[in-house]
Amino acid sequence: MSFSPPVFLKESEENNSKFVEIQQAQTTSTVSEDPLQNLCLASQEVLQKAQQSGRSKCLRCGGSRMFYCYTCYVPVENVPVEQIPLVKLPLKIDIIKHPKETDGKSTAVHAKLLAPEFVDIYTYPCIPEYEEKDHEVALVFPGPKSVSIKDISSHLQKRVRNNGSGKNDDPDKPSVKRKKAEGQDVCDFSDSKWKGTTLKRIIFIDSTWNQTNKIFTDERLQGLLQVELKSRKTCFWRHQKGKPDTFLSTIEAIYYFLVDYHTDILKEKYIGQYDNLLFFYSFMYQLVKNVRCSGDKETRKLTH
Questions:
Q1: Residue 73 region, left (φ>0) first, then alpha (ψ -120 to 50), else beta?
Q2: What is the pLDDT, as a whole number, of residue 234?
């Protein structure tokens, strides 16, 4: 014999189901509204105090800036350097910035501020010479020849096998001159957790999408392994008009690359090791979000 449950039980189950759906929807909505909320960040109290006191002086060039100097790559006077987190990276990062990219609007500076020993920024047409190191360098750029992060090591190892040491075998081929950079020595990868990967340096282009092609087609970047990031949505408040929300800001691209590199190449669990690369970015994101909600004109001036 079978029987149907009482009507009130059905209604109760339906109500519970709807309640769970609403909770899930609210949680999803909250995460989508604030995708940076679960980062493992150092205390941002120093930025809160600096935001309240306003612009401050750069101790190097004397310029008036908010939070940091985007020309000297250092925190300003009212942001003590010892209160800014330092992030250790598993490889070196070179950022090639388009000359028309506005310094004050570029997030590439964040990487240099937070990981100064691992990051170098060059303004195009200044590009380092990668020709003799193309077996240990890759360029983050989407395209038909791009490979996924998890396939980087196998592709670079093929270059080593095919080209011997990876050096230029043609003595008549001219070498492109480069600007000498600070901290040009590569990291010490003798530690066991770096073994199994030949990548030692990754390159990012810092420009709008319309400006990128001029840098990407430069002969000094030709022949490098191209890497494409997994598709992710940007949180950047200066979104490029007419472009999809999968076009990331430079610091987002660096951060997401390192997260995927950590899990796909180093084969280690990610527990927030590089989250502090978004130390400034997440604070500004929340600041801009609050400004837009409140319409506070004075705060808008500070975030400009």
A1: left
A2: 79
